[in-house]
Amino acid sequence: MRKKISIFGAGNVGASLAQLIVASGIADCSLIDVAPGLAEGKALDLSHARPLYGRDVKVEGGEDDALVQGSELVVITAGVTRKPGMSRDQLLETNARIVAQCAASVKKHAPQAFVIVVSNPLDAMTWLAAETTGFKKNKVMGMAGALDSSRFISLLADELKVSVRDIQALVLGGHGDQMVPVLSSATWQGQPAAGLLTKEQLSKIIERTRNAGAEIVSKMKTSAFFS
Q: What does each C-alpha distance from 97 to 14, 91, 142, 184 come to in angstroms?
């Protein structure tokens, strides 16, 4: 029996994730969204793409939160996205209601699942999901650390003009202006990045890492979704 991954939210982030799941064939996939027809339509579209990927996974979508039943992994991407000039914290009130509803559905229909939260403001929403489900702390996590570290690595690689595969770097702290790109962790093939770049270059990279989300929002008028 194949594993199952469910996604709350069939917007840009949720649909991009669903496509990766189907293309890789790692699990069956359920998309859930309150917008009438949205999740069902995107699931149908992805289902028709299976022959192109050579995959036989099951793809379903709809408004019914019971679709999450049987999932080993649930990803919560539902919620409103940032607009230019907005901080993640300004999404708190609206997205708290949405994430709490999603988490309650997971608790009811998939109490065995591992939960990854993507909705912003990420740190608060991850805490809320953990509180609502009542799951152990090691069963609920937020995605921010991986994303922020990926942005840090990407910017370092571009500045050094090297492969991202040869860069090691880490970002700690919250998913926001207070994140800490750990310069001492940044290396290229084992060599400290601090010895390869000027202080001005490093300061610019750290600042762009912290503001990468806002930079994307200012250009796309919505939140990032490929990363």
A: 18, 11, 17, 39
Residue 213, pLDDT > 90, answer no
Catalytic residues: 175
pLDDT tens string 97-137: 999 999 999 999 999 999 999 998 899 999 999 999 999 99
Distance between CA atoms of 24 and 27, rounded to whole angstroms?
8
Same domain, 69 and 110: yes
Same domain, 47 and 81: yes
**70 lies in the same domain as 124:** yes
Domain span holding position 30: 4-142
Token pair listed for 201? 């270059």
Is pTM beyond 0.90? Reply is no
